[in-house]
Specification:
Layout (H helix, E strand, L loop, with lengths): L1 H27 L4 H26 L5 H4 L1 H19 E5 L2 H9 L5 E5 L1 H6 L7 E5 L2 H9 L5 E3 L1 H13 L3 E7 L8 E7 L5 H9 L12 E4 L9 H5 L5 E4 L2 E4 L7 H5 L5 E4 L10
Antiparallel strand pairs: 1-5, 2-3, 2-4, 3-6, 5-6, 7-10, 8-9
Amino acid sequence: MTSMREPVKIIIRTWAILAAFLLGHIVTGEHSPIRLFFMRVFARYLEVPLLYVSYHACVGRLKFISRFRLTRALILYPVAYPFGHYGDTGKPIPADKLIEMMEGLEGKMAVGPCRCRVGHRACGHPMETDIVMRTGTDVWLKAFPDDYRVIEKDEAIRIVRECAGLGMFHMVFLHCLVGGAVNEYVICNCCTDGCTPYILNRTLGQKVFPLVKGEWRVEFEEDRCIGCGVCVAFCPFDARRLVNGKAEVLDCFGCGLCETHCPTGVCVIVSPPSPPLGRR
């Protein structure tokens, strides 16, 4: 009997893997009608209410939900975990690398009010900073024709530069994260006091609501570091600290704010080589 069960298990496992692969391809393709349908529903009916409730559950009037272990487990985790792992989340990117990416983009872009700030109205940063691109452009233009407008590439880059000048950091958001898909659809200009996905990540942790670490990491010349602590103060991910009068890099997300604000220029954002395939 045991000898019969093993081949059956192998066959079932093989078909399950194939089914997951095919479903992932159908659902997560860049121009998949199913993915675009989910995106339209998300944009029109779910995004702002989810951001509103999540913000207040973490730092607002409902923050008792995230404060107590039971309410986190019963209310926040069941929503935040699947959404952050498979639905929608952000990837930090340095301002200059983002501008390089934008310069190479094809197709139209549009700008509208930041969905987080629309939701909670608790942040004083600029509102018109939500830059949709690729498949996101038509979805958001159709969902919110009075709020979003088509812009030229130069204006989009100007918005990014102005936000960078205000000390904000940037994330490219990805939709439908199944089977390793990377569908980038919007550029967000974020802040630590108003970006709800960032606040969710900081409140619940990387394992529950992950942000995708960018392709960039910071390196610096330790001998030239003066230990001023500016990089520590500006890092939104708590990835810097001072040890024996020198800065130390911890788990870098690649946002690039330390490079931008380091007074001595010792912080440099680099693209590290990819690890061997078996270690990713």
